[in-house]
Write a structure and sequence with these properties.
The protein has 138 residues and is α/β, with parallel strands linked by helices. The protein has one domain: 2,3-Dihydroxybiphenyl 1,2-Dioxygenase, domain 1 (Roll). It has four helices and eight strands, in the order βαβββαβαβββα. Strands 1-4-3-2 form a four-stranded mixed beta sheet. Strands 5-8-7-6 form a four-stranded mixed beta sheet. A hairpin with a 4-residue loop joins strand 3 and strand 4. The longest helix has 13 residues. The radius of gyration is 16 Å and the shape is globular. The termini are far apart. It comes from Adhaeribacter arboris.
Length: 138
Amino acid sequence: MKTMATQIFVNLPVKDLNKSIEFFKNLGYSFNPQFTDENATCLIISDTIYVMLLVEPFFKSFTKKAIPDTTQNAQVILALSAESREGVDDLVNKAIAAGATTPNDKQDQGFMYGWGFQDLDGHLWEVMYMDPSAVQQG
């Protein structure tokens, strides 16, 4: 029996859904229209990674907890891998051009390289590349 690969659906609150959609389109991502309406959209990161961008009132319907002010508090850091060091820089530069900020400097540890951005709603995204030969060596 063939099993389906585990998928992840990260749910993030957003203030302005249309601005968030435009922001992530500028990064080269697409959306699943089947799961898009005035309350939410499904951002497609990969075949197994999706981010549900939910307007804040709709997000609140899933939890009794308060939504943290992500301009002041870190809620989560979302880390994505890139195919190369240039891929890291390319995605973060696209994010900056689309209105993101960079809360930290680039991190270059030789075998691992990373840089991140803070999106329009203050969510933290880290993009990293790890040299495959360094991973194999342990």
